[in-house]
Each structure stands twice: as C-alpha cells, then as structure tokens.
Design brief:
The protein is 23% helix and 33% strand. The strands form 2 sheets. Strands 1-5-6-7-8 form a 5-stranded mixed β-sheet. A 3-stranded antiparallel β-sheet has the order 2-3-4. The chain starts with 7 loop residues before the first strand and ends with a strand.
Length: 104
C-alpha cells in the first residue's frame, strides 16, 4: 500500500516520489529518476521500511502512539536529495537523516 502518496518530494528536481514494489520491497523513487535515469536526477531511492522506522522512533521519543494508519496525522511532508532525508512533522519538529547520523 502506498502510505506516503503525495508526501515525498525530490529536493534535486522538485518532482514527486513514486511508489515502487520491488519484489515485495516497497520503495519510493523520484519521478524524474524513474523516467529519465540517474543522470537527470541523482536523488536516492528510499525504502518504505526505513521511513517507517525513522518516524516510529521520532514518535516514541515524543511519547506519541504511532501506527501506519495514523501516518498522515504526524507527517506533513518529506524531502529527499542525493544525501539527506528531511521528515517534517505537523507539530513543527523535523527528523534529519544523513549518511552518517539521524537527528530527531
């Protein structure tokens, strides 16, 4: 199921991310990268399981009860580029995922 539909934007080219079922591994890929290749947009492919894990950890820190059904109650939008993922929450907080660390 496409839980993040319309929520993930590419910071490199500005396009939306599309859902992809890759052998039951649910992923999101930039529309430009999907249609024209990595040479046109170098943003990263993001696994749904990874995003859910980060959001769940963020909610646990804030003592909020997170379930996938409540996803859109917590997350405003997500920005992805070739290195970082920024998850913006409706309460004004942000999770930043870089190649070396996660900041809640």
């Amino acid at each position: 199921m496409n839980y993040f539909k319309g929520m993930i934007k590419c910071s490199c080219c500005g396009k939306n991310y599309n859902f992809k079922n890759n052998n039951n591994q649910y992923e999101y890929i930039c529309q430009t990268r999907k249609n024209y290749g990595k040479s046109k947009c170098n943003s990263q492919i993001v696994k749904e399981e990874f995003l859910v894990n980060i959001i769940s950890q963020h909610c646990n820190i804030l003592d909020k009860d997170f379930t996938m059904g409540k996803l859109k109650l917590f997350v405003r939008f997500i920005e992805v580029d070739d290195n970082d993922i920024l998850i913006y929450y409706k309460d004004g907080t942000v999770s930043k995922v870089t190649p070396n660390k996660i900041v809640f």
